[in-house]
Design brief:
Blueprint (H helix, E strand, L loop, with lengths): L21 H26 L14 H8 L7 E3 L5 H7 L3 H8 L33 H15 L5 E6 L6 H13 L3 E7 L2 E2 L2 E2 H4 L5 H6 L4 E6 L3 H18 L3 E6 L17 H8 L3 H11 L5 H24 L34
Parallel strand pairs: 1-2, 2-3, 3-7, 6-7
Antiparallel strand pairs: 4-5
Helix pairs in contact: 1-2, 1-3, 1-11, 1-12, 2-3, 2-9, 4-12, 5-6
The structure holds thiamine diphosphate and magnesium ion.
Length: about 350
């Protein structure tokens, strides 16, 4: 597939999505720039051993990340994968709290216990941050079930990768969501790879809208390198899920410019392919469009980048200077079933007379 002519274009949908008002368009661009600068710095911090565990960057996918968040109301729910720093930032979690989480610090959004894969912010209704491929899909349906049960108008947006559509959870969840009429949108971020395996080699059905349709869930496809097209497609799906109380699927065609994680030598794809996709980098593409349409000028975009860099500098300083969680907090946040779990597995000493 040529990245310049995305096969993602939905028949009848214009090549570029509709622009919102000038203020919103500028905010979308500024947020994509913040996400990009944040992740570049997170990658640097990882190589300097400031960040432990895994680190998955979504560099190249910012139009899908920010487009998704901007298709939701504050009362809607968002649940994502391990590639989710940008989702938290776009939903409004402070860069300081996200960076401190990567640094394993007590001031992080999960108290430093989750790390990169487990960013979480209940206040912003960003429900994580999940490391198990496809594991977040039934959990997302659970959020939608509670909305349906309470009879409110909330929608859940559940982000998953192309690779995750091969998990049993995908089929099981879409089936039950269709049967029960759950208000959920499954956003399949099709970056064409599951780790080092291309979609043609990991999925017998590469048309992921069709894969959802086979399970009773209607879908749309969008150009995930264009934030306006992505936001419009997700808005359309969210509106159907909200008003008709049924699940929808959106397949966003995109590409990650970096490796799967920081430990990926990228032997499975050519530099030429990566370079060709970089020509469609969603950030300069949207910036150019906003200049052409008279929404912003070059100086305004440069100022946005300076502000993004300053925000990331402040986040790194905050994370660096924050304390690690103290040993006295070791037993906090542990889920245990009262006295049913005994011995060293339990955070509570067993009763004296227990076996
Ligand atoms: C159940 C499970 N199996 C395997 C893994 C290892 N793993 C982590 S990411 C990944 C690839 C997933 O690809 P995709 O769903 O396309 O998401 P992407 O990484 O491209 O965003 C795999 C196999 C895992 N985390 N969980
Ligand atoms: Mg993928």
């Amino acid at each position: 597939m040529s990245p310049r002519e995305p096969e993602s274009a939905v028949p009848g949908r214009p090549a570029l999505g509709p622009l919102p008002d000038a203020e919103a368009a500028a905010e979308w661009l500024a947020t994509m720039m913040l996400v990009r600068r944040f992740e570049e710095r997170a990658g640097e911090s990882y190589t300097r051993a400031k960040v432990g565990g895994f680190l998955h960057l979504a560099i190249g996918e910012e139009a899908v990340v920010v487009g998704a968040a901007r298709a939701l109301k504050p009362t809607d729910w968002l649940i994502s994968t391990y590639r989710s720093h940008g989702h938290a930032l776009a939903r409004g979690t402070k860069p300081e709290a996200v960076m401190a989480e990567l640094y394993g610090k007590a001031t992080g959004s999960s108290g430093g216990r989750g790390g990169s894969m487990h960013i979480f912010d209940l206040e912003k209704r960003f429900m994580g941050g999940w490391g198990i491929v496809g594991g977040n899909v039934p959990i997302g349906a659970g959020f939608a079930l509670q909305s349906s049960y309470r009879g409110n108008d909330e929608v859940t947006l559940c982000v998953l990768g192309d690779g995750a559509t091969n998990q049993g959870t995908f089929a099981e969840t879409l089936n039950i969501a269709a049967l029960w009429g759950l208000p959920i949108v499954f956003l399949v971020v099709n970056n064409r790879f599951g780790m080092g395996t291309s979609i043609e080699r990991h999925s017998a059905v590469t048309d992921l809208v069709r894969k959802g349709a086979g399970l009773g869930v209607d879908g749309l496809r969008c150009d995930g390198m264009d934030i306006a097209a992505t936001q419009a497609a997700i808005c359309e799906a969210v509106e159907i899920a909200r008003s008709e109380q049924r699940p929808m699927l959106v397949e966003a065609m995109t590409y990650r410019f970096r490796g799967h994680s920081m430990a990926d030598p990228e032997k499975y794809r050519s530099k030429e392919q990566v370079d060709e996709w970089k020509l469609r980098d969603p950030i300069p593409a949207f910036g150019k469009r906003l200049i052409e349409e008279g929404v912003l000028d070059t100086a305004a975009i440069e100022a946005m980048d300076t502000a993004a860099l300053a925000a990331v500098d402040a986040a790194v300083k905050f994370a660096d200077e924050s304390p690690v969680p103290g040993p006295e907090t070791l037993q906090e946040g542990i889920y245990e079933l009262g006295g049913q779990v005994h011995g060293w597995l339990s955070a509570t000493p067993p009763p004296k007379d227990s076996p």
